[in-house]
Amino acid sequence: MTAAASEVHHPFFARFWSVFVAHEAKAVKALRRENLAGLSGRVLEVGAGTGANFAYYPESVEQVVAVEPEPRLAAIARDAASGAAIPVAVTAETVEAFSDGEQFDAVVCSLVLCSVHDQDAVLRRLHSLLRPGGELRYLEHVASAGGRGRFQRLVDATFWPRMLGNCHTHRDTERAIIGAGFEVAEARREWTLPVWAPLPVSELALGRARKAA
User: Which residue in 176, 167, 128, 122 sits closest to 3, CA to CA?
Assistant: First the structure.
């Protein structure tokens, strides 16, 4: 993400992501649902994309404010919001610029922290937007070890971020979450494709982190 919504334009990625999410694997859908389970109150979703999460929010959520600065994706997310079972408001602001004057009960990040330009700054901003005791729920591409990790570093340095909306596959996202002041309460790794699949984004981290009360 960048400082102004007008600077966030990834037309190729927006088209690709719309098709990809429409055919998303059942394993990823299940992880999305698990990531949102038990949420309540006001929720900020960062990088909402096409609104793929909206159908999985529990009825205990009072409102979702969904930030999506890519205009093509934001338009699709607004259509998804209109059919959601809970109130969803989609804004085209970046999270760096976003503020509605109140803190949130939870923040949700799904496959977005890999693509922000300054991950540390974004996570610190999310920490400030949470009420004390609030939760960060995350489902994120993360750095793998061994040969896949070397492959991730290679694609990150060449074509992958340019083609896929600034996605960087070899980020130590959980270290950054802790560095921003969160306390990780639960975390695990999941493979959504076979280990041998030649893709750098097969391994996901699913976790819950808290802002100290």
Answer: 122
Residue 188 resides in a domain: yes
Domains of the chain: total: 1
Name beta bridge partners: 189: 205
Strands (E), 16-121: 41-46, 61-67, 88-91, 104-110
- Whether 1 is in a domain gets the answer no
Residues spanned by the domain of 70: 11-211
Give the pTM.
0.93
Q: Which two tokens stand for residue 145?
A: 């070890």
Residue 165's alpha-carbon distances to 168, 169, 177, in angstroms, are 9, 12, 21
CATH of the domain at 49: 3.40.50.150
pLDDT by residue (tens digit) across 189-202? 999 877 667 889 99
Q: Would you mind telling me the total number of residues written for the chain in this entry?
A: 213
Render pLDDT for 159-174 as a digit per residue (tens, 0 to 9). Answer: 999 999 999 999 999 9
